[in-house]
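[audit] Reproducing an earlier prediction to check determinism. Same input, same settings, fresh worker. If the tokens differ from the archived copy the diff job will pick it up downstream; this log only records the rerun itself.
[audit] input (372 residues):
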Amino acid sequence: MSTERIADRTTFAYWVPNVSGGLVTSDIEQRTSWDYDYNVKLARTAENNGFEYALSQVRYEASYGAEFQHESTSFSLALLLATERLKVIAAVHPGLWQPAVLAKLGATADQLSGGRFAVNVVSGWFKDEFTHMGEPWLEHDERYRRSAEFLQVLRKIWTEDDVDFRGDFYRIHDFTLKPKPANTPERPNPELFQGGNSTAAIANGGRYADWYFSNGKDYDGITAQIDELRDVARAHKREVKVGLNGFVIARDTEKEARDTLREIVEKANRPAVEGFRAAVKHAGSSTSDKKGMWSDSTFEDLVQYNDGFRTQLIGTPEQVAHRIVEYRRRGVDLILAGFLHFQEEVEYFGEKVLPLVREIEASESTVELATV
């Protein structure tokens, strides 16, 4: 078990359902909508039920159960302006964004929201989204080299004047952005998240990001990933926080929760899941060391397209809370939660699960203080 730098408390984020089809590729009934009004109500519900972050997804082309999508940065700004405390993370693709242009948009969004804008850098897995727009498609490790430069340029533009950067993908000359984001000593720039499971993603996270997002993992899987991430960060005299994806099915009984999971998988939209599987099957195998996103995902894993079932946040509120705390003990700072019926289940989570998490964390803190 990794025990280095355990967070005092778990932070919670939720996936913004700004794409159709919810968070599972299944024909099960989903009382979740991708429209603006639903998402505004959900964002306000989330910030009043203990959620501090929301992650706005990015898809550009109708595909694999996500036929309709709202663009992530504009939708993030809309949610920021409709809420008071929620921090909204916009997922973006290097290669489809010029970093200085995104830096300008981000600074404006951050100023308008009082310092609540953040970015998740997604290096890209969906080849057709690039090639259908006439953009070049790079091999896996090259995409992450580009993302490394993208992260560096964003941070420099947000925190420095007269920026010069001479990379293989981006060249910035004597560039000054004003106004800067609403930077503070506690948060010197809008938070930068790096997602992925590969060695290249971990290297980027450890060297350049503030946060590292992992796909769904069990205890052993996330512990190994955190240890590797911290080795990279330590070598560069940095500290990086960790977010873990998990699909939450919390019900009054374990049987209800397991039955819901079973129904989701049994009613999976098989053509859509198989289409997604075909699109991502090379994501892990195309890396230099054959490690990466979806490299060992089963059909069931891909019904929740970020392996969220693997985190096993499934059961009674007590079971889910204890599992969340176990992830925290292994170095996870944030749980990125997906749900079947977002509005009602976010409320249930805030009422039934989160208080139990806080209770366990408080009791552990008391024991630690007593032993000092």
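[audit] rerun output stored. Observation attached for the diff report: The longest helix spans residues 342-371.
[audit] end
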